[in-house]
Structure formats: C-alpha cells, structure tokens
Design a protein that fits this description.
single chain; alpha/beta; 5 helices
Length: 128
Amino acid sequence: MTILLVDDDEDDRQLFIEAAGEVDKEIRCIAAVNGEEALQYLNDTANPAPDFIFLDLRMPGLSGQQTLVEIKKDARLAPIPVIVYTTSRDEKESQTLKELGAAHFMSKPVSPDDVYYMVSFVLGEKWD
C-alpha cells in the first residue's frame, strides 16, 4: 500500500509517516512538501499511483483545494481517494471539498495517537 502525503509542515509529515508505519509496516509513504511537488509526482507515469492521498488544505503556493481540483481533472488519478486534513473546522468549506471530490475532510491531528487513529480509520474504510 502506498500513501502520498502532501503537507508543507515537516513535523506533521514526520509524525504522519511514523504513525502510518505503526498502523502497518508495509505502508509506503511518499511525501510531497506542496501541491506542485505532489502533482509532479502524480503526473510522472513512471511512478506508481498511490492507493490514498492525504492532502493538507493550507499550503503556500498551490493550495490543497487547487491540488484536489487538478487531481480530480485527471481520469487516471480521479479514482484515488483524497483525504483532506486541515486545522479548519469550516462546514461550508468541507462541503465544497466533498463536491470537488474529496473522499473525507478531517481535522488535522496533533498527537501521534490521533494520526494513528486517522490512518487506521481511512485504511479500514470500504472504498468501492
């Protein structure tokens, strides 16, 4: 299983990668520091498509929302579940993101236990 993690915060990336490894040692995490880097990775057909994309909403440059729109425009990438996570608790924003194709909208976890729960939850969902 491969997860593409898109987050500009280095500490958050490290926390996520460690927690994902605790959920399942077979999970391979690919980290991108922003939306542009994520799209470069995704658009390179030599790279395997990830099983899931965890996308931070608030990033400099290409925002998480803009990145989501670009992912969902591509027929090859559109089926990949995108989980948007953010510090925002805006209901209207979460509705907009779901309309744009986000599979889930979650509050950004702050502790290793919260990240572990989030990854476990997402991997335990049925995605058909």
